[in-house]
């Protein structure tokens, strides 16, 4: 079964300095039909205005991934990490038994556009952790590149969750495929462009939710950037 959720069906919040689309219930947006998918709990598409950001705040027992699309995100946390996250980097922060952090756009004339992703951990109360790696465009071109996994395989960042995250860039005749376990769930989020997922067309911001499927086939890309999640049911 493949279900498409259109971009405009997502929740939306405009705080002036922050404009955010919510794929699942978050903060002031609540939809009982969209509380998450498998162990994927949050995908927020955030645009942070120049000179603005999220002040210091806390998280607990969550695996948090930041995927920057444009601009740059400054990160500072209670573990002592002070990092800048440029486009192409994947940042993983394990909140574990508790962490404080802030995120800021220090650019004076550029919006930071990024995805904030939360995965439910497979163990609670672990020590907080941090990891950040670069995956350049060539590494994602015409394929699905593993960027996060429970075992850090293929140079991916390590998440303490039963989930794998792939990123791909597809255009023209480029195709990509992934064998799926029908007992698990898969979630496809189209970051930008156009793309066919098992023959169904998606445009920027759309998502496809797959259950009971054995194969994922991506084709018909038009300047497409896509994230694919392999998730615990």
Mean pLDDT: 96
Percent of sequence in beta strands: over 45%
Question: SS-based structural class?
Answer: mainly beta
Q: Summarize the amount of helix as a percent range.
A: under 10%
H-E order: EEEEEEEEEEEEHEEEEEEEE
Commentary on this structure:
The model has no long low-confidence stretch (mean pLDDT 96). It is built from one helix and 20 strands. The strands form three sheets. Strands 1, 13, 14, 15, 16, 17, 18, 19 and 20 form a nine-stranded mixed sheet that branches. It has a seven-stranded antiparallel sheet with strand order 2-3-4-11-6-9-12, with no helix packed on it. The chain is an all-beta fold and 233 residues long. A hairpin with a 4-residue loop joins β7 (73-77) and β8 (82-85).
What are the defining features of this structure?
1 helix, 2% helix, single chain
In short:
The chain contains 1 helix and 20 strands. The protein is mainly β and 233 residues long.
Layout of strands and helices, then pairs:
Elements: E1 2-5, E2 11-14, E3 18-22, E4 40-48, E5 53-59, E6 63-70, E7 73-77, E8 82-85, E9 89-94, E10 99-104, E11 112-119, E12 129-134, H1 137-140, E13 144-149, E14 157-158, E15 163-170, E16 176-179, E17 185-197, E18 200-203, E19 207-211, E20 215-231
Parallel strand pairs: 13-14
Antiparallel strand pairs: 1-19, 2-3, 3-4, 4-11, 5-10, 6-9, 6-11, 7-8, 7-10, 9-12, 13-15, 15-20, 16-20, 17-18, 17-19, 17-20
């Amino acid at each position: 079964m493949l279900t498409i959720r259109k971009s405009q069906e997502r929740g939306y919040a405009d705080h002036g300095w922050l404009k955010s689309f919510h794929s699942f219930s978050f903060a002031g947006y609540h939809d009982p039909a969209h509380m998450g998918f498998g162990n994927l709990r949050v995908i927020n598409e955030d645009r942070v205005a120049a000179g603005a950001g999220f002040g210091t705040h806390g998280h607990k027992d969550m695996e948090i991934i930041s995927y920057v699309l444009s601009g740059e995100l400054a990160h500072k946390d209670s573990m002592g990490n002070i990092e800048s996250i440029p486009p192409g980097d994947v940042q993983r922060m394990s909140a574990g038994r508790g962490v404080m952090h802030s995120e800021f756009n220090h650019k004076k004339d550029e919006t930071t556009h990024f995805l904030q992703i939360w995965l439910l951990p497979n163990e609670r109360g672990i020590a907080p952790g941090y990891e950040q790696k670069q995956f350049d465009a060539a590494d994602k071109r015409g394929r699905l590149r593993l960027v996060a996994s429970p075992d850090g395989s293929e140079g991916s960042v390590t998440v303490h969750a039963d989930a794998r995250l792939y990123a791909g860039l597809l255009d023209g005749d480029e195709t990509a495929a992934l064998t799926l376990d029908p007992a698990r769930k898969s979630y496809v989020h189209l970051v930008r462009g156009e793309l066919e997922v098992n023959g169904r067309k998606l445009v920027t911001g759309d998502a496809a939710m797959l259950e009971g499927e054995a194969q994922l086939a991506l084709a018909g890309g038009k300047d497409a950037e896509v994230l694919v999640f392999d998730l615990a049911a």
